[in-house]
Specification:
Length: 83
């Protein structure tokens, strides 16, 4: 199941934080629920669409971003290390 297709910006809490990682240069930036909720054009987007539209802000990069939400990462790449 892809959580990005099941969560709409409207469902987010202002305090929620999403992680956006640039696929090209690896730059990480945080997107808050508040930031998204304040954008009238973003309100009805699914997180999948937000991810698709996100672009790296690093000068000269403009790469696409990979979205992750702490605790909801479907790749579970680090879970084994904690247990
Ligand atoms: Zn980048």
């Amino acid at each position: 199941m892809n959580w990005k297709r099941n969560i709409q910006v409207l469902d987010l809490e202002p305090t929620d934080r999403l992680e956006l990682l640039c696929r090209k240069c690896g730059k990480l930036r945080w997107l808050t629920g508040e930031e998204l909720l304040n954008r009238p054009d973003a309100k009805y987007l699914w997180l999948e669409d937000v991810e698709r539209r996100a672009r790296c802000r690093q000068r000269g990069c403009g790469g696409t971003m990979r979205m992750a939400m702490p605790g909801q990462d479907e790749t579970s790449s680090f879970v084994g290390g904690i247990a």
